[in-house]
Amino acid sequence: MITLHDVYVFAGLVFVAIAALSARDASNPRRFGNALFWGLIAVSFLFGSWLGDIANGILALALAALGGFRLLGVGVYTRDGEAERVASAYYRGDMLFLPALLIPVTAMLGTVVLKNIIVGGAPLIEPKQATVISLALGVAIAWVAASLWLREQPVVALQEGRRLMDAIGWASVLPQMLASLGAVFAVAGVGRIVGELAANTIPLGTPFATVVAYCLGMAVFTIVMGNAFAAFPVMTAAIGLPLVVHRFHGDPAIMAAIGMLSGFCGTLVTPMAANFNIVPTALLGLDRNAVIRTQWPTALLLLFCNTLLMYFLVFRFGTHHT
Amino acid sequence: MLVLSGIGIVVFGFLLRANPLLVVAAAALVTGLAAGLHPLAVLAVLGRAFNENRYVSLVFLPLPVIGLLERHGLQERARMLIGRLRNATAGRLLLAYLLMRQAFASVGLTAIGGHAQMVRPLIAPMAEAAAERAGPATAAARARIRAFAASADNVGAFFGEDIFVAVSSILLIKGFLGESGIAVQPLDLSLWAIPTALLALAIHGARLLLLDRRPASPTKVGES
């Protein structure tokens, strides 16, 4: 059975190679910073399951220090000039899209088909991780196909991967660090305190006020936590269930569905949701806040509509009776 | 109340534009200590969550292949493709991508799309090329279009996935309400996600189309 751990080994080996290539890049004044950074990520992927919690914590802090104190640099990468790329684009034609599309198509087919295939009594891939494993399979297939077709050694793709990872730099571990912060918040009981504060300080005498407080609370707490999943249990326990559902007899399914989507409005505007809002700015060569700047008007308007939507639906429709 | 100091560190850190990695690490340590945890216990919570969330960083796995194809002209080819589509504008192209992303996500296919494998190599260069059809765009206009390309991916994914009954957020809601003694059907939850999904498409779609109204090229004074 192919498991998530096998995918981690694949990713770990890629980062081992990127670290080794970084160490050899004399054009990067901070090449050993890069080598250590990508090397630690490789260690995390390869051995994280055996390191123990405290060693993993030290590893995470070491990555934060390397990235945060600007110990990463950028090298010179062997890349052909724009003229060569345009010539190749003419010569290779639309076939260039095929390997790129192979990745999502394999991920899609794998998610739908592979998880139902049984080999020797066990499923071929870990069913719960079907999408991630299929994505990795797609990458492997596209990697081999593209290297053969373009007649490039596998190391060329690794160098190109290093170029792109160096461009992302420290931002690459921010999503994982934020997940760690969320875990510390959870252990420290931050959510419970924020929920109590929200329930005790906001006037909640009318159905409309409770709906506003719930939707707004979902968005604001998601902005703080970077994740609507962390905000949902807190806000729903503090305002949603006791007030919207129990006191004012709103429908729980409508409240929960629209409440979660109000949280997603918060996700659109928070740097804490780094994988959606910060990593893309690094990938696209943009100012760190550029994606959030384009998303906040949509988020605000949608949150406003969502609140009205919940108010008009939650007390009128639904099948549930409490 | 003291445990909320971590939130303060995050807010001020981002406002002061300090490096987010350091801000987040500091906030985690301060919050844990303020809650009365032993420093080693804080480190353990941090390390365990970091390790359990390694799958988040698998989004970078396609980058070597994407980089290899970029070396052979993938972005340039994406720009050429737009040249052949006569009616394509940046706004219409991004609207089509938003619609596609949302539609695939709503049937559970969130793997189709994404910033690393779709937006950077294909969607962003195509949108830039469409905007530059009338003439070269300013660097600011091109940056704006790339940022909107990323936003189309986010909005489509967020407000499409909740229509799919087996997505993690639906399962989280069902589990949480179940623990509180309220049984809800996943289908009910996904049904009530549809109005917001349509509103998201309308609002962000309209903003994408408005992108075409803003001049991408520097205004040529006195040329007319």
Q: Could you explain the architecture of this structure?
A:
With about 325 residues, chain A is an all-alpha fold. Chain A has helices spanning about 5-25, 30-50, 55-70, 80-90, 95-110, 130-150, 155-170, 175-190, 190-200, 205-225, 230-245, 250-265, 275, 280-285, 290-315, and strands spanning about 120, 120-125. In chain A, strand 1 and strand 2 form a beta hairpin. In chain A, helix 5 packs antiparallel against helix 6 (about 130-150) and helix 10 (about 205-225) packs antiparallel against helix 15 (about 290-315). Chain A is globular. The model of chain A has no long low-confidence stretch (mean pLDDT about 90). Chain B folds into two domains: about 1-50, no CATH class; about 60-215, no CATH class. In chain B, about 70% of the residues lie in helices and about 0% in strands. Chain B is built from eleven helices and no strands. Chain B has helices spanning about 5-15, 20-35, 40-50, 65-70, 75-85, 90-105, 115-130, 140-160, 170-180, 185-190, 195-210. In chain B, helix 1 packs antiparallel against helix 2 and helix 8 packs antiparallel against helix 11. The interface between A and B is large, with 150 and 115 residues.
